[in-house]
Design goal:
Layout lengths: L1 H7 L3 E6 L2 H9 L2 H4 L3 E4 L13 E2 L1 H5 L8 H10 L4 E4 L3 H16 L5 E5 L2 E5 L8 H13 L4 E6 L2 H11 L6 E3 L5 H5 L12 H9 L5 H5 L3 H8 L1 H11 L16 E11 L2 H22 L1 E12 L5 E12 L2 H15 L5 E13 H8 L3
Parallel strand pairs: 2-4, 7-8
Antiparallel strand pairs: 1-6, 1-7, 2-3, 5-6, 9-12, 10-11, 10-12
Helix pairs in contact: 12-13, 14-15
The chain binds magnesium ion (MG).
């Protein structure tokens, strides 16, 4: 992994919109921005008991209301502070329009952009290098033309650039630059939870092992992490903690994958229904790979929750290229078990990525 990281180190810029949903709502209705009440973009818990806060205003954040918190708990918190709550129903179509405008603007500044979510994108930034000024200028342009405040992380790998964009949110100019060779030092003081791919459960396990910062994690022997977290995730933690990242950007032009998606007629948390849908999708993807004479070395899932529309994608590098439905289904199921919070799902998808002709893969399998 070390060699691969060195080969792909470059200059990457990660863009993340600050409080996207609330910011768009406040642009559309400026009085919301000045509202002294707690403003939550999310559904009213009296109607939707399991709704969560997507984003909120600063009044809400000041009393500890955070994104992802249940709106019922947020309402109780507001009551305890004697504050009134306004619920704004999320309008995904409107956020989508802002997102498209943002991505179009960003594309004018990079030869390669990979959209990561509605409000995040990773870009090849090699041409401009590690200079602060072009990034600050782009940020100003976004603010002026679209009205959105964004945070930028600039780093030698896409992974570190993403984490830098989180740190950027706490900085005055919302730009965080990690120079070449400084990734490990930049990551070391951050909480392990800040590492991409470490969720609440992994955080608890890591802390129980006495690992609280990314720097602590970087010092653990690979064998221990593999023993504790399995081969794929253990190796990932080991490499990522020191800033190594062999991923490259998949731009729209180079993008090639085969996927199957399904929107449930009713949001479902029925595990049997979900597992059987994943198996069917893996079979579908496998058949289409075979029809095209392709194999994949990555399997990914996409899952969208019902109430919040929060969409999650996760991918897994396979040990060897394959078109086997069983292997794809097992990979997708493993990702799903880790990602799914058991809340009702609106949409599920399985995708095969990193495709190549089947024959080339067989030849490559021998020398390695
Ligand atoms: Mg964001």
């Amino acid at each position: 992994m070390g060699t691969a990281a060195a080969l792909t180190d470059g200059v990457y810029l990660h863009c993340d919109v600050d409080k996207m949903y609330f910011s768009v709502e406040a642009l559309e209705a400026p009085e919301l921005a000045r509202d002294p009440r707690v403003v939550i973009v999310g559904l009213d818990p009296r109607e939707y008991p399991r709704a969560v806060v997507t984003t909120s205003n600063s009044v809400a954040r000041d009393i500890g209301i955070t994104s992802g918190m249940s709106t019922a708990i947020a309402a109780r918190t507001a009551r305890e502070h004697g504050l009134e709550v306004v619920y704004v129903r999320p309008r995904h179509a409107v956020y989508g329009q802002y997102s498209r405008r943002l991505m179009e603007l960003l594309r004018q500044h990079t030869p390669l952009l990979e959209q990561r979510s509605i409000d995040e994108a990773a870009m090849d930034w090699t041409a401009a290098g590690f200079e602060r000024e072009p990034v600050v200028k782009l940020r100003t342009r976004i603010l002026e033309q679209i009205g959105l405040s964004v945070s930028f992380g600039l780093a030698p790998t896409p992974l570190v650039a993403k984490m830098a964009s989180e740190v950027a949110k706490t900085l005055a100019d919302h730009v965080c630059i990690v120079a070449p060779g400084e990734s490990a030092a930049f990551l070391a003081p951050l909480s392990v939870r800040a590492l991409v791919g470490v969720g609440p459960k992994s955080e608890v396990r890591l802390r129980a092992m006495g690992i609280s910062t990314i720097g602590d994690l970087a010092q653990q022997p690979l064998t221990l992490l593999v023993e504790q977290f399995g081969s794929a995730y253990g190796r990932y933690l080991h490499a990522a903690a020191s800033g190594q990242d062999d991923s490259t950007l998949v731009g729209e032009h180079a993008y090639k994958s085969i996927s199957a998606e399904h929107t449930f007629a009713r949001d479902t948390a029925d595990a049997r229904e979900i597992w059987s849908r994943i198996r069917a999708q893996a079979r579908d993807v496998s058949e289409r790979l075979r029809a095209e004479g392709l194999v994949c070395s990555e399997v990914a899932i996409k899952l969208r929750y019902g109430v919040t529309w929060i969409t999650i994608t996760r991918q897994l590098r396979l040990g060897a290229p394959t078109d086997d439905a069983e292997v794809l289904a097992a990979g997708a199921a493993a990702l799903m078990r880790k990602a799914w919070t058991r809340q009702p799902i609106r949409l599920i998808g399985v995708r095969a990525g990193k495709l190549e002709p089947a024959r080339a893969a067989v030849q490559l399998a021998f020398p390695s």
